[in-house]
Amino acid sequence: MKEWAPLEVEFYKRAFAAAGKGNYDIYVVFVEKGLSLLNGRGRLGFILPHKFFNAQYGEALRGLLAEGKHLAGVVHFGDAQIFAGATTYTCLLFLEKAGADACRFTKVDDLDAWQKTGQGTEGAIPAANVTAAEWNFTVGRGADLFEKLRRMPVKLGDVASIFVGLQTSADKIYILEEISPTENGLTQVRDCNGAEWELEADLLKPFLSHVTVSSYEQPRTHHRLIFPYALDSGKAQLIDKGIMAARYPKIWAYLQQNSGFLRDREGGKWHHDQWYAFGRTQNMTEMDAPKLIVQVISQEGRYAYDEDSIYFTGGGNGPYYGIRWRPSDKPVSLFYLQGLLNAKLLDYYLGKISSPFRGGYWSYGKRFIEQLPIRPIDLADPADRERHDRMVDLVEEMLALHRRLAVARTDHEQTNLKRQIDATDRRIDRLVYDLYNLTDEEIRIVEKEQDRGERLTKQSPYCMITNT
Q: What distance in Å separates the CA atoms of residue 378 and residue 386, rounded to the nearest whole number?
C-alpha cells in the first residue's frame, strides 16, 4: 500500500487506533470501523486472519477490543485451510458493542467434524484475561497446565541472548558453495552464476544455507561466507582494501568483479570506499563462540549445538536464530538449556503461543521462543546441581549417539543406535517433567498432545520451504 496508496496509509494511521502500530494489515482497520458503526446493542462477525492475535501490529486492535470488552466469541481454525486455492490462517471473530463478560472460544482441531457438527474444544475466556498483550487462549484439558507454565517468572528472553543472523544485503555475492576442502590455504568454491573460484580460506567462514538443523546433530555446512572483517576485542573491523589486495588477492579480485552490484545495493548508497562491507553490522561477533542454532520454521523444536563457529544470515522469519546464555560465561551449561528447549514440554508450550503454518509447521521466531518458561538452576543447591549435571550428561550422550549414527554402516547398528537415542530422549523428557514439577496427569496431557502432533505431521502432504 505504501507504493500504490501512500496517502491512504498515512490517513488510516491518523484516523484509526488499530493502524497506529507499525506496518499494519488493512483488515484491522475494517474491524475498528465495523465496531464503530454498531449501535449500543449491535453485534459484529468477521471471517478474518488470526495473525493479529500474536503480531506486533495487532497490539493496538487487541487493546481496543480489550478496553471495551468487545470480544464475545472466537472460532480458531489454527493451520487448517478453509479456502481452496489460498493459504490463509483463519478465525471467526464475534464482537459486541455493549461488551461481554467472557469470550466463548472454540479451537477447531478437526475441520471436517466442526463443519458437520460444530464440534471443537470450547471454553470461556474471562474478559479480564483479554488484554492488549498477545492472545494465547487455551481451553480444554490443558488450560490449567498452560497457565501454570505461563506464570513461571523466568523466560528464555530474560536469561538468554537470542540473535538474528548477519545482514549482508548481497547474499548471492558473499555466499558461495564449497566444492572441495581447503588445501594449501585455498578453498575451491562456486558462485551464484556457476563460476568456480579458488579463494583464501582465512576469510571464508563455514555457512548454513538450505540446511535443516537437527536437535542433537552438529550442523553440516556446504557453503562458505566471505567475511571481510577482523575480529578483535569483541569488535568487527572492516579490513582495509590495501590489506585485502595484498593478503587476500583472490578474494579481492572476486569482490572487485562484483563491485558494480555491491556499490548499487540499497539504491546506490554504497558508492564509497567501503563498498565491500556488509549491509548491516549487527551480531558479527556473535558467531564464533559456542551457541545453539534454532530452525525458525519447523514442525518441532530444533535447537542444535554448534562449537564450530558456523555463520548464518537471517532476520525475523529466519531461517535461523542463535541462542546463548546471558551473560555468556554463565556457569550453567548450555547443554542444560539445550535439553530443556528440545524437550516435549517446552515444545508443547510453544504450540500454544506461536503462529501455525500449514502442514504442522510453527514459527520458532524470537518473539515466540523468548516467552518459553525456563526452569532456573541454583548450583549452590545440591539437588539442583545434581539435576543440572544429569541433564548435561544426557545431552552429551545424545550428541555422542548422533555422531555415531552419522557414521554407522550397517542397518543393525543404525537400528540399535536409534533405539538408544529414543530411550535417552525419553529420559530427558522425564527429567524436564521433574524440573517443572508436573503431575502424572499433566505429563499425560503433554504426551498425548505431542504424540497427536507427530501423527498429524506424518500424515500431512504439505511442507514449508524457507528461502535463504
A: 10
Top pLDDT among 430 and 459 is at: 430
* pLDDT tens per residue, range 143-157: 899 999 999 999 999
d(CA 310, CA 333): 20
CB atoms within 10 A of CB 172: 12
Strands 71-76 and 102-107: parallel
Q: What is the pTM of this model?
A: 0.83
- The three cell numbers of residue 195 are 563460476
pLDDT above 70: residue 274: yes
The residue length of the chain stands at: 468
Cα 379 from Cα 332, distance rounded (Å):
8
Q: Which residue has the cell 579481492?
A: 252
Cell numbers that stand for 459 in this block = 500424515
